[in-house]
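Much of our argument rests on the idea that a fold can be written as discrete symbols. The record that follows shows the chain in one-letter code together with its fold in token form.
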Amino acid sequence: MENNPIGIFDTGIGGSSILASCVAQMPHESFIYVADNKKAPYGKRFRSTIYKRVRKILIDLIECHQIKAFVIACNTASSVCKQKLRNEFAIPIIAVEPPLKLVKREENCLILATKHTLKCKRVRHFMKRKNVAYKIAISSLAARIDKNIGNFDEILPFLRKKLASFAKEDKNISAVVLGCTHYSFIEKQLQQVFPNASIISSEKAVARQVKNTLREVNLLCRKKGGTLKIILTKPSDKMENFINEIYAAQLDNDAL
């Protein structure tokens, strides 16, 4: 079973940031990347709808592809589904969450996430613990990132408009926490909106968690020659090519 693939799930390209970090830390592993772009975005959907959808995808991955672990690389889906899925399924399930643990209490922090993620009890706990000053849910941002694959600068005017009130000098934002894996692809644009803030993302920490979890259950692959299979619920050459390029670029980096 150690040679079986790892399933990585997201609504679009966001989870490929997690995929890249997983490949960097576990280059021998094989992966199946599922993007539910047909039903994206999840931010406006009912919790019950999200859970049923993710559960069905997980069952398909177990039955058809014999995955050895499942990574929910979507903060919204993680906040809604992770505990129920862990209670029902025996395979390791690794979820993502906003990297609030990395925030220093003295930092003036803004968290960007969906409304479901911001309502999550665990997220609210860490926001209070870390004294997070500001939060905002931009429901259409992940969809805009998927739409503007390869040309993320097109999103910059939208970001400036939506985040204008937070970018004022009197707010003095010193840290921006990314509560959606899609947002990792617009770090450069966010840095232009908040030039004096550190941008905090979760992909490296999630990949470490995946590796440590597989090590604990003796499922790390020791055999060279990992592969990637991409499954989109709605055909999109642009999205598939982007995910493939992210994967190939990381393999090239590992080979250097």
Q: What stands out?
A: DSSP finds ten helices and nine strands in the chain. The CA atoms of residues 47 and 80 lie 6 Å apart.
